[in-house]
Amino acid sequence: MGEFEEFAEALFGQLSVEIDEEREIMQLAIKAKEDIAGKVQFSELEEIAKEIFPIFKEKAEDFLGVKVPSDLQLKFPELEDLKRLKGEKVFADSESKEFVIKLFNAVAKEDLKNIAELMKENTAKYLVYSTYAIQYISKITTTYGDYLNSVIYLNKFILSRYPQIILHKQGEPYESRFENVNSGYLGAVKMTVLEELIHSAQGNLHQINKNAAMEVNRINEELAEIILSLDTETVNKLSEYCQLQAVPDDFPFAKKANLFFFLNPDHFLIEQIGPDVMTFTHVEIDPKIGESIPQLLDIYKRWLVPIQQHHAAFTAMEGMAGFAIENILKEDQDFQNYLTTFMGTDFSSYQVRKSMGKDFTKAIYEKLGKNTFKKMIEIPPSTRELKDPQLYLKKLS
């Protein structure tokens, strides 16, 4: 087996827990469906979503004081299509987009041969975007919905199976337990539709997030190209100096990959500076590393601006959605039942969950009321302002 093939195997090794979980969910759902058949019946996901969609579109617009796009569609992807969709959610420039789509298709089909070929075709792009494949696909069983390009996607793989599995796990008599679980199912769909409706209304924030993420990816590709072009002596010297795991000499790509993942700003700077990298304005690097890769300091300095823009926009988007969901659904019995039956928690525990974006939104809402959301979309907060909402209010005034 060649080195690229081994890397393809390693990718699935990192996703093995998730892939096993997906298979287990499928098997549990088949067993549950057989056992509860003829006793109780859950409505189809498509039916519920289409019925509640106009109601929650109105609720979202009313609470946010912002229009939701009028051309929205609902789609209900199963597992393989969901994995492909995650590739669409990776923001890459036009040169890299095609590679990302091919990579996610190969991962969705668990096609090791194709992944190894893609790695050979463009190793730098593989190093950057394979991390997204691991990160995004590992969250499929906990992500109920997505929004992209005027389409709200509801995770049919999970949302149509979980209610049956939960009821089955609770055991007989199914008839008397059905009402609560069914109500929790409705609550899950309501929450997901509402969250994605809110994301669909975040136009400018979404665009800033997308542009910043694309720039971060471009810079990471540049770094990957530089590391892949290093000679063996430099790679060995740096690997030893950075105390990286020893790799046999007949695995040159693995050595460079290890170095890339170590020096990748997402890892290296956050390890060096800590989470405050999001408000940091100054970067220094170890002179020994700088001697071997003179371009590194400039790359890190250029990376700071878009990563902070990306972090700020994404935190604001998620915070706004979290705050709105909490307020719109606080009296909703189905949502309360979703929290108890699906999440094993309750509304008061849900409310106190800490989130920088939600806390920021709440602080601005206390001052600006409904005008908060329009302002956050038009004039996004910076990472520093997210930590100190008074700075943002001062900027607005």
Topology diagram in text:
Elements: H1 3-14, H2 16-36, H3 45-64, E1 73-75, H4 79-88, H5 94-108, H6 112-121, H7 123-137, E2 145-148, E3 151-154, H8 156-159, H9 162-170, H10 174-200, H11 203-228, H12 232-241, H13 252-263, H14 265-273, H15 287-292, H16 296-328, H17 333-341, H18 347-351, H19 356-368, H20 371-378, H21 383-387, H22 389-396
Parallel strand pairs: 1-3
Antiparallel strand pairs: 2-3
Helix pairs in contact: 1-6, 2-9, 3-10, 4-5, 5-6, 5-7, 6-7, 7-11, 9-10, 10-16, 10-17, 11-13, 11-16, 12-13, 16-19, 19-22
Determine the number of helices (DSSP H or I, runs of at least 4 residues): 22
User: What Rg do the Cα atoms give?
Assistant: 23 Å
How far apart, in Å, are the first and last alpha carbons? 64 Å
Strand order of the largest sheet: 1-3-2
Sheet with most strands: 3 strands, mixed
Strand content: under 5%
Helix fraction, binned, reads over 70%
pLDDT averaged over residues: 92
- List the domain count as a whole number: 1
Series of H and E elements = HHHEHHHHEEHHHHHHHHHHHHHHH
Contiguous uncertain segments of 5+ residues: none
Overall geometry comes to globular
Query: What is the SS-derived class?
Result: mainly alpha
The total strand number stands at 3
